[in-house]
Amino acid sequence: MPSTQAPSTTDAIAVHKNYRIQYPQERYFIKQPVAPGSYLGPIDASLPNADKVPLLFQPFQVKDLTLPNRVVVAPMGQFSSQDGFFTDYHLVHLGSFATHGAGLILAEATAVVPEGRISPADTGLWDDKQIPGLKRIADFVHAQGSKLGIQLAHAGRKASVKAHYEELPESAYWKDNVVAPSGGAEFQWGQSHHIPRELSIEEIEETIKAFGTAAARAAKAGLDTVEIHGAHGYLIHQFLSPVSNHRTDRYGGSLENRAQFLLEVIRAVRENFPAEKPILLRVSATDFVEHLDQPSWDIAQTVQIAKWVKEAGVDVFHVSAGGNTAKQRIKAFPGYQVPFAERVKREVPGLVVVAVGIITEGKQAEEVLEKEKADLIAVGRGFLRHPNFVINAAQALNVKAKFSQQYEHGRI
């Protein structure tokens, strides 16, 4: 009578000897001989310039990180964590971008301390126990041929707010421990946010150290890069902008002083992350409050700090905009933030620049690269609408891009 016993691990390895395999079984990966999203040739070789490889589908290297294409998945908060841990949701969410061919995937804003979360449902990297869940995602992404980074963050005065789709008990929030460069009612971001208290020098130093230890954990998880979150009105941006920073000590006043917190964070991260791996910095190029006729954050200051951060150890400069005040006025349209990236690239030679901001399709992305406005293209919500953004862009550019082994039958 045939045995009903399940095959042993040894039997399974024998059956799958042609593939790279890791056990336990949930860590088993089909080998991808070529990374999804890689250029394989033109779809139609008879078209004009069909032999020219679009820049979007040319590999890109910075330090020891080589990307199969120049498409970056921008960090997008998913508010799907408990106590800061990465979950199966994040594995599927981030892993899907790898199977669909994204060159580099940046995991969402991940808090370096518990009180630095935007909401209680944010991911964190303040505890060694949070490393394994992140490593599981990194292993999966790498098995597909893609690369993974994480955005290290502190929300500052924008912390402890409700996720837009989940109601949690009041005990889950820390409304009396929301911090900022400057405290008091005048520094409350908006009516849905809490009144922050001012960080002490000792707390600033502890926060800088927390960025460094979070970077060390990212390295232990096997990540390819880390991105420091200095944009969208979160803590680093709050220090940079005179709208939100009225300090009179060495962290406030002049641009040099307001940039000091950021520069010290960069040094802490660089000291704790492998030297051969690049560090990214995401910034907002402007506060979009020119109509208020008061000192604020603008592109000229952004260009200046780009020069400083390059010297401090940043390899890639990711240029976004806005988010530091509810009084901002933004006229959004396709590519509206690209001119900010273009100016940084023009005025800071040698710094790799990422453009982002309603880049919706392949030809638009390729034009940004062709005109040397940026080196890499980041897409956020476009990936939420179309996880196969890379394949769609390839078709628009007459590129036959590699599908994952499992998805090859889906090729048109």
UniProtKB/TrEMBL annotation:
Residues 56-398 form the NADH:flavin oxidoreductase/NADH oxidase N-terminal domain. Pfam families: Oxidored_FMN. Keywords: Flavoprotein, FMN, NADP, Oxidoreductase. It comes from the Eukaryota. GO terms for molecular function: FMN binding; NADP binding; NADPH dehydrogenase activity. InterPro entries: Aldolase_TIM, OxRdtase_FMN_N, YqjM-like. Its cofactor is FMN. This is NADH:flavin oxidoreductase/NADH oxidase N-terminal domain-containing protein. It comes from Linnemannia hyalina.
